[in-house]
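Supplementary material to the annual report.
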Amino acid sequence: QVQLQESGPGLVKPSQTLSLTCTVSGGSISSGGYYWSWIRQHPGKGLEWIGYIYYSGSTYYNPSLKSRVTISVDTSKNQFSLKLSSVTAADTAVYYCAMGVGATELFFDYWGQGTLVTVSS
Amino acid sequence: SYVLTQPPSVSVAPGKTARITCGGNNIGSKSVHWYQQKPGQAPVLVIYYDSDRPSGIPERFSGSNSGNTATLTISRVEAGDEADYYCQVWDSSSDHPEVFGGGTKLTVL
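Predicted assembly:
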């Protein structure tokens, strides 16, 4: 069974860069066929997909966040990471990493437990 | 961009059947996935490709999709089914392919 675990700072100052890492266990990112994703949830709100990366390094981002988002992968560590630049209070949310399945009709089969990131000075 | 519409809340008595709808333009032509989220927890996939159940999800959970409405049906509802439920599609023809519904709070009376 695949497990995902987010890690990173829980508090980020406005205008700085939010950085999170997702460590995958029970499966290899390099095995292919999966779309390693970041999804966030603002407090009390619904789900928002941020983007995904394939093991080859190809990425696909939410157009509304694209200018500020970078997702990268480190297959040697079986990890993928999120960087979100120029954060504001509107980026305060629980951030989830997830394993996406099905390239043309993607769904999210496994999720990390989520990590709350607060943007505040 | 594509929009999915869910009722904010649905209430059902234990042992009865709950139906949670997800509306979208010609949603029947797309694959719909459903997630259950309990307070303080990550979402859990309960239905994918309209009606398939992941291993470990009870047979009480089923899905259907036709026309402009997809439906998640929970039979013989239990107190432990109380949660938020989200529908999701991947609209590959759109610049913004991922779409989640706004979520439905299922209350077990």
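Chain A touches chain B at residues 46-49, 60, 62-64, 96, 101-102, 104-109, 111-114 (CB under 8 Å).
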